[in-house]
Amino acid sequence: MIKPSMPANEQQRLEKLFSYAVLDTACELAFDDIVLLASMICEVPISAISLIDKDRQWFKAKVGLGATQTSRDISFCGHAIHQTDLMTVPDATSDIRFCDNPLVTGDPSIRFYAGSPLITPDGLHLGTLCVIDRIPRQLSASQNAALEALSRQVVNLLELRLKQSRLEQMNTQKNEFFAHVSHDLRSPIAALESLAELLQSEAAELDAAGVAEYARDLCQAASQTRELVDNLLDWARFDTDRIAFTPSSFQLSSLSEPVLSLLDLTAKAKKLSLRSDIPSPCPVFADPAMLRSLIHNLVVNAIKFSPEGSQVTLSAERLNNGRINISVRDQGCGLSEAKIAELLQPGQHRSSRGTAGETGSGLGISLCQRFAAAHGSLLDISSRPGIGSSFSFSVASI
């Protein structure tokens, strides 16, 4: 007996197989129907969808077999996955690879085998759709073609199964996200209502200082609401491909200075200072709307988690590869490695309260990841708890 060898791309092949999350799952009618059709068309008593795991072949569906898996070392399919077309063994007893194989000398007494490899769209071989008989034989040309066609349908089913699973996961995440955003929107809206009611009932008794205090609180609540709504709208537009990446050439300071000016009052309310360390000139080639949102969200996030008397710095520098690295640094509470990993995890929108109890949806950082990716960059986070954090990304330069 000759054991099947490992494909050169074995690790990549296994990772692809595992990504389908199909191993050791329950029977599914669609797969059962395919092996039944294969058995009937090829006029054999045994057929199976065999997936080649690290040390075994596992049957997703089968006809005429009692076992749910066998060792990979004795599998016929372990040999078949090396091929790009049908592998046929007319008589296993006269084939040096299989003549003393326990599946030939014992149950199920294999004599004839034909296996069509299950090849993914990116060319990786997961296993086979195979048919087996207990007597030597050959398939007709039409049976060969049918077996190959059915094997392609197995891969299509696996792909559909994977897409359905991802869609279900995305729907769950979106439901959780919208529930979370709805909850976070209630806080500033409720604050607006309460402050407006208090201002109305106490207007006659308030002096200028009292009115100014109410006005400041109203502006803060309105600003939080606007930021949540703006991010939510941007997210929805990006998700439906209604935001197009339209880069142009401009000086970075022409965009960054208005953003910092807009947020200056928010920073002063927390007794923070905003600092710009953008060299002049600093020409960039980027999408102005996306870049504005990136810088705005990162500065807002830095302000949110900074204590009184600290500083938030927006800076830019040219990298060795010619791109411009843009970063926002704070002197805030910092982040643990676990929190950084959570923030960078796709589909997650968790948020924490700021140093002054500010709320948020966590959507801003997720948007920053998407907008950075549109510019060919990752959002990089470095932080030390109790010291501060730095959020950075890069854009092209002119």
Structural write-up:
This protein is of the alpha+beta class. It has ten helices and 13 strands. It has helices at 10-19, 29-42, 77-80, 102-105, 141-202, 208-239, 252-269, 288-304, 337-343, 363-374, and strands at residues 46-52, 56-63, 69-71, 87-89, 112-119, 125-133, 248-251, 273-277, 283-286, 311-318, 324-329, 380-384, 388-397. Helix 8 packs antiparallel against helix 10 (363-374). The longest helix is centred in the middle third of the chain and has 62 residues, at 141-202.
Report the count of strand segments.
13
**CATH architecture assignment name of the largest domain:** 2-Layer Sandwich
Coarse structural class: alpha+beta
Overall average residue pLDDT: 85
Low-confidence stretches: 353-357
Number of helices: 10
Proportion of helical residues: 40-55%
Summarize the helices and strands and which ones pair or pack:
Layout: H1 10-19, H2 29-42, E1 46-52, E2 56-63, E3 69-71, H3 77-80, E4 87-89, H4 102-105, E5 112-119, E6 125-133, H5 141-202, H6 208-239, E7 248-251, H7 252-269, E8 273-277, E9 283-286, H8 288-304, E10 311-318, E11 324-329, H9 337-343, H10 363-374, E12 380-384, E13 388-397
Summarize this structure briefly:
This protein is an alpha+beta fold. It contains 10 helices and 13 strands. The strands form 2 sheets. Strands 7, 8, 9, 10, 11, 12 and 13 form a 7-stranded mixed sheet that branches.
